[in-house]
Write a structure and sequence with these properties.
By secondary structure, the chain is mainly alpha-helical. The chain has helices at residues 8-25, 50-63, 65-81; strands at residues 35-36, 46-47. The chain has one domain (8-32, 46-81). The chain has a two-stranded antiparallel ribbon with strand order 1-2.
């Protein structure tokens, strides 16, 4: 993806601005964690924090649905894993 992602640094910076705005809005100055709720009647319910929704919305608007979701997911995982491989 890196070859096709020519503005990676700009996009990472934009995501950092979005996250920092959300952090500043909270009294505890912490980002909300990702919470997976238990399925109900075979429907998976996911409680998506505002910062995740904001990042996804930003990149979908910038790149379109397919590419925007791909980039948003990549950036969110990068921030959640601190660029470490998950085993």
């Amino acid at each position: 993806m890196t070859k096709d992602w020519l503005v990676k640094k700009d996009d990472l910076d934009a995501a950092a601005v979005i996250i920092n705005k959300r952090v500043a809005m909270r009294e505890d100055h912490m980002i909300e964690p990702l919470d997976l709720m238990l399925p109900f009647d075979n429907e998976e319910l996911i409680d998506i924090p505002d910062w995740v929704a904001d990042i996804a919305e930003y990149f979908v608007e910038k790149y379109g649905i397919e590419k925007g979701e791909q980039i948003a997911n990549h950036i969110i995982m990068k921030y959640l894993t601190a660029d470490q491989t998950i085993h």
